[in-house]
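Late entry, evening session. Most of the bench is empty. Finally got around to the prediction I had been postponing all week. Sequence below, unchanged from the version circulated by S.P.
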Amino acid sequence: MKKILASFMVFGLAVAALTGCGGNKATIDTMELKIGVSTGEDDPRNIAAKEFADEIAAKTGGKLTAKVYPSGELGGDAALIDALAAKSGKVDIVISDASNFATYEPKMGISALPFLFDDFDTAWAFMDSDVEAEAEEPLLKKNIRVLAHYCNGFRCVTNSKKPIETPEDMKGLVIRTPENPIIMATMSALGASPQPLSFSELYPALQQGIYDAQENPIPVIYNNNLYEVQDYLSVTNHIYSGMCFVISEDIWQRMPAEYQEILKEAAKGSAESDRESNRLQTENLLDELEKAGMKINEPDLAPFADVTASVISDNASVYGDLYQKLQDWRAAH
């Protein structure tokens, strides 16, 4: 009888061991992470992402490396986020506008509501706040973990027809936007006709006259040569584009704690570099764009803020309690 019981115990332990092995994913020891970015190589986010790659390689003795795929090589923003959420293996890290994640968590649009912030420091403080963290938390269930916040900058309108001095000048313009509900709603409120398109397709679309206009931060406009296919730049600063540096939660959970800490610190360090680079480029590149032939104007922004206030009120219910937390945060800052 004792022999039979002993045999059952050994069998049970063996089954448990096999079940445990089958249920656990292998811990990552060495890996090359694929970083997907939609903009060109000279964009601050690509430069900072390469700094991130250098840092993690140095800190892990080359066991953990990363390769940056710029210019939409792995897909546009929406496709990159979809691939990450689907655990496709196509991409491991994505750097994209925070509000582009709103298709997976609607509250992620909160940082992109029009005319929320007047300057970089305030915008950065919000992106690092508990309010933004609360918006991001549900993304974990979608295989998306936010490690840091890059800066895309304040979005401005360019077009091939006329300077934008008032909201009236926006009426009828066919304007390219990302596939982003808040940005599209903002352009619609101003009277333009927003049509989403992948960033990698934007330059030829403007060149062929398919679109009259587009809207992006100053560094993006310059570093991706959009001045070659657009005549007017209006400094509307209608939306601050904070970006999320995100990693696959599946990959993250397979990392040893030591690697996780290295990744977090490298992501935050590269984000600081990206932010300062973006601030400097925003300050300095207007002159370069003017030299390149663009006609630049700085309209009174108050009428634009008034017209787009409906975008904020229309979306308040989407954000629930988070909307009041946003208002409280703004009042305190």
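Two things to note before I forget:
The first strand starts at residue 31 and ends at 36.
Residues 257-291 form the longest helix (35 residues).
Will write this up properly tomorrow.
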